[in-house]
Amino acid sequence: MIQLRDLSVKLPGFTLKEINLTVEKGEFFTLLGPTGAGKTLILESISGMIPIHRGTITINGKDVSKMPPERRGVGIVYQDSALFPHLNVRKNIFFGLRYHGKTVRQSGKALDAIIEWFSLEHLLDRSVVNLSGGEKQRVAMARALAVDPSVLLLDEPLSALDPGFREEIRDILKTLHEETGITVLMVTHDFVEAHYLAQRTAVLNAGLIEQAGTVADVFYRPSTPFVARFVGMKNIFPAKFDKDVAWVDDLQFTIPHSDNRFRKYVAIRPEDICVSRTNISKIATNIFNATVMRIFNKGIFSDIRLDVSGTVFQAILPTSALYRMNFAEGETVCITFTPERVHVI
Amino acid sequence: MIQLRDLSVKLPGFTLKEINLTVEKGEFFTLLGPTGAGKTLILESISGMIPIHRGTITINGKDVSKMPPERRGVGIVYQDSALFPHLNVRKNIFFGLRYHGKTVRQSGKALDAIIEWFSLEHLLDRSVVNLSGGEKQRVAMARALAVDPSVLLLDEPLSALDPGFREEIRDILKTLHEETGITVLMVTHDFVEAHYLAQRTAVLNAGLIEQAGTVADVFYRPSTPFVARFVGMKNIFPAKFDKDVAWVDDLQFTIPHSDNRFRKYVAIRPEDICVSRTNISKIATNIFNATVMRIFNKGIFSDIRLDVSGTVFQAILPTSALYRMNFAEGETVCITFTPERVHVI
Amino acid sequence: MKIEPFLWLMISCSLLIIAFILLPLIEMVLQPTAAAMVETFQDADVLRSIFFSVSASAAAALISFVLGTPFAYLLARRTFPGKKIMESIVDLPIMIPHPVVGIALLSIAGRNHWIGQLLQKMGITLMGTATGIIAVMTFVGLPFYINTVKTGFEAIPVRAENVARSLGASRSGAFFRVTFPLAWRSMVVGMIMCMARAISEFGAIVIVAYHPMVASVMIYERFTAYGIKYSQPVAVWLILICLFLFLLLRFFSIQPKSTT
Amino acid sequence: MKIEPFLWLMISCSLLIIAFILLPLIEMVLQPTAAAMVETFQDADVLRSIFFSVSASAAAALISFVLGTPFAYLLARRTFPGKKIMESIVDLPIMIPHPVVGIALLSIAGRNHWIGQLLQKMGITLMGTATGIIAVMTFVGLPFYINTVKTGFEAIPVRAENVARSLGASRSGAFFRVTFPLAWRSMVVGMIMCMARAISEFGAIVIVAYHPMVASVMIYERFTAYGIKYSQPVAVWLILICLFLFLLLRFFSIQPKSTT
After folding, report:
1. Is the N or the C terminus of chain B less surrounded, counting Cβ atoms within 10 Å?
2. pLDDT-derived band of residue A329, with 50, 70 and 90 as boundaries?
3. Residue D38 lies in a domain
4. What are B258-310's pLDDT values in tens digits?
5. Pick from A211, A224, A172, A166: which is nearest to A345 by CA?
6. Is A299 on the interface with C (CB under 8 A)?
7. φ, ψ for residue B160 (rounded to 5)?
8. CB-based contact (8 Å) between D1 and chain B?
């Protein structure tokens, strides 16, 4: 378990402000945010690499705020692997043993299991310099796990990898967490990674946590426009509210019934907007006539921009469906979305 | 138009071998390939930054193989923008004018149009150092276009951008090409970008062109396993052929009727595999019982791995559909795919 | 947090070194009386020698700038066989014992050597002339200029030059409009380094030309003839004037960036 | 392709500089007769002075290694107020005219200074002793060691050290098992640079100690007493022996990487 209480870090030109965060034991937690949001800074505070200004860091109930890094029991895997270039794969993996009162012989079985798990047997005597990106990350993870850390911190472990390796390492991470139940805190700027790997997540922006919760919660119920944009809600409009109705300019949206007193925006995911030539939905609300402005073929899926009396909607459709329906730019079509897919922020 | 004839480049540790390539006038052509395939080397040969070993480079019918870079009329936009940090935005854009016998006054209207087109009016007096990634790329493009180049070379112009800016610049590139009809050769390692922007493409691997053709051709009819993997055909199996039938181990696939004498593989896209509890398709062939091995939630879509008597298939489904159908790992399901979606390689 | 012995080791070694460098210099600057300082400054010989040191080393820096800049650019941008050897040759003057530098330069300037005869025909003598002193100073100062400017050039992305050329600039156009404005700061620093090394030279100069007297030779002469007390004021003046010059140059090179 | 004047300018400047550095050195090496070379090498005074130069500069390099390594590490890894000033102080010895270095070191070693009195109580004299010469050599050589090793440390990613600490290594454990094995090559290069600078020193040494005689002082003495012909063989021997030593050290530092 990792607990951050009022964690503040001050660096020249950047401040982390009163971060409160709990990663439960055995949880896979992701810290999301754009570049420069302070995600890595949080990892470095937890691992003890940078001094904290205020607050406390607790790992498994023990206050480690003032401990040196080597006594915190934190495993780290960096984006660039940070392998020791002067040691071969085996010596990289065994590096930490002596500091934990272990020898290779004593922990033989456990080590063999780790090496086998990461399929590194045939690489043990290789220099780490010429490994592929995926191999490097596997060695880095094996090295971190060899000393049996109480928590594992991952700093964008997939970002520097080519797409093929990215999937491989992502699957390895998922399986690893499922099988060992180790507490993982991972930093990433890619929401899909979080969605794929994590139970809970926190979205960081400029040194502040904007929202924390389950991945589904953040994905479906973003609490700020920043988070909404970050999780891919392309349609975010300032709105006025009245019970189960929202007005975006002159457009009237039916929305889920809830307390909308302090809300200011409505947001709709592009994939939740249904585009058709005539109204085919069973509901009677949230039906608008729209003009097709632009269609962008993005491979398997296509983006479509639609103008509803001056408000521009963005929808996403399978390219094949689009071909079938044969929409033309300038054509008037019908867009609908169910009230429960309208998010109020 | 850009024509490469038997272009060879020799560098220590890398060789481009006899590249033949034609980019038609007004075409948007992409060079695809993984890191280190030699894509950038081709751009640098065309722009004259590196000496070529053999072959000829023709731009708009003129042999430029031996011309210095400044006389080739080639515009370049790099991944990192490569703006001149000591000049402000305006001076960056105007940099090339004097070499083309133009003054700012003479080409006033054209320049204004370019600046307006890229929405750079309010940035003209800013230093380029503090611009955002998207702004930097807009300035880099405006700078290249200010001197009216005959072709535009783009070296992974989207790779270094944050996702939001990436879409913006991608849309700008698409519109730019549509409106001006300039010949564009773009290097990228992202197939989706190629799909979105280009008419034709070539896939490069280790200094050799593996396949060239329309994007759709390469996407739907990859000619080598390397290209198939590169365009996202996850299911590639060695096969034996007989007329309109292929055998993968003991599985019999119905395939499109064609000359399969020299073919060695079948490949199926994950999105072309239909997964259901009972057979709901109208065709009678390519129906297999499969065991659900793993489901990977990847956000809007989910990956599903299926075992058909030892052969592992990978399919992709909308996460919502998967939830509705409520597949469990270990369950037996039915997979089908139409014969025309089986690619022979 | 327990005291980290490793950190303390670092700090104490650092302070020891700082003290070792600073204490002698501070002590030397503080020892001469104000009266001695004033008196020394009014001595025309002293002023002349300091002025000569400064102007000769400035000449060496200028020569390094003119000849060394293209060389540094070549080393920074091109790869060619023998480049490593060239770089080693550039570093040679740093390694050569100072009196040997003077002897080596005199070796080719003699009357029985073709270069010496050529120089003589051109009216150039090294032995006992300002020319000789400038030659020595250039010899010892060049490596500092070239290495500094080479690093400066290397820090400028080749892609910026490539873009300039694709926009129509010739090789020299790209150099003068992109590379130079981005690298001139490193050139100023390189010239300061070169000048500093040139001004500090003694062993090679004393072999090539005792007269005209540069400041370092004058300091040596006063030390051997009259002892430390008499040589200190000149040393202090030389250091102060150098310091002033270098600060001035540094100041000009850290001016707020203009847009051209 | 038309001839590029810019390229020609670069090449001709480069060749000019190479010639300017190499020709005098080659000429000097070629001028002494074989007989003179052999005779000089059998002169016990010459051998003693060269051996003394080498061993004293080796001592300076060793002192730099011991004291300078922690300092270089501090400068490479930490940011703290006054760091820029510290770096400037480290560079000071490069800027100070050589005779002034000697005078400055003597300034604190005198009997009427507390440090001088302290040194005297410890039985240490600088004036006219090997200790003084090693002090001078360390003073002028330290900056070269510290700057080289600092750059070496900076090239080692902090993340490697961070990972080592997260794996349980203390600060010193991380240093000795990760940083040192990755940086020792730069330390060898730094020691070579320091030694080369120390061996080449003349102006400061001649002030602090004419005797015991280092090679550069002997070369100067022979030049002033008997002229260039008589000083050249010693100079050539000094250069050859230095070159041999440096090549030897370089060779050891470019051994194929071991895995520890």
Report:
1. N
2. confident
3. no
4. 777 778 899 988 888 888 887 766 667 888 999 998 887 766 677 899 999 98
5. A224
6. no
7. -90, 5
8. yes
A183-188 vs A28-32, strand pairing mode: parallel
Q: In the numeric block, which tokens belong to residue D98?
A: 């050589």
**Contact call for residues D126 and D117 (beta carbons, < 8 A):** no
Task: Give the tokens for residue A252.
Answer: 């009237």
CA distance C260 to D165: 47
Dihedral sign, Cα of residue A267, residue A273, residue A277, residue A283: negative
With CA atoms as reference, the chain C residue closest to B86 would be C259
Residues forming beta bridges with residue B332, ordered by sequence position: B291
Q: Is residue B227 part of a domain?
A: no
A226 inside domain = no
Q: Does D238 touch chain C (CB under 8 A)?
A: yes
Are C166 and B80 a contacting pair at CB < 8 A? no
CATH number for the domain that contains residue A93: 3.40.50.300
Tell me, yes or no, whether A208 and A253 share the same domain. no
pTM for the model: 0.83
Domain termination site, one of A220, A255, A280 = A220
Number of domains in chain B: 2
Q: Which of residues 157-216 of D touch C (CB under 8 A)?
A: 170-172, 175, 193, 196-197, 199-203, 206-207, 215-216
Phi, psi torsion values for B199, nearest 5 degrees:
-85, -50
Tokens read off for D164 = 């080592």
Whether D10 maps to a domain, the answer reads no
Distance CA B57, CA B63 (A): 6
A246 beta partners: A241, A253
What is the maximum span of chain C, computed from C-alpha positions, in angstroms? Answer: 76
Report the candidate in D100, D222, D227 with the shortest Cα–Cα distance to residue C220.
Answer: D100
CA distance D135 to C230: 23
Residue ranges of E strands in A198-326: 200-205, 208-214, 235-238, 240-242, 245-248, 251-254, 265-268, 274-276, 287-298, 301-308, 311-318
Q: Which residues pair with B62 in a beta bridge?
A: B59
CATH number of the domain encompassing residue C176: 1.10.3720.10
Range of the domain at C201: 58-212
Structural domain containing residue A125: 2-220
What is the per-residue pLDDT across C169-205, written as a single tens digit (0 to 9) for each? 998 899 999 999 999 989 998 999 899 999 999 999 9
Give chain D's domain count.
Answer: 1
How far does the CA of residue B343 sit from the closest CA of chain C (Å)?
42
Phi (first) and psi of residue C231, to 5 degrees: -85, -25
A296, B196: Cβ pair inside 8 Å?
yes
Q: What's the pLDDT tens digit per position in A255-308?
A: 887 777 778 899 988 878 888 887 766 667 888 999 998 887 766 677 899 999
Neighbours of chain B (3+ CB pairs under 8 A): A, C, D
Nearest CB to C95: which of D20, D200, D219? Answer: D200
Alpha helices by DSSP H, listed for B82-156, are: 89-94, 108-117, 133-146
Residues B222, B343 contacting (CB under 8 angstroms) = yes
Looking at the domain assignment, is residue A259 inside a domain? yes
Residues C233, C235, C237, C238, Cα dihedral to 10°: 160
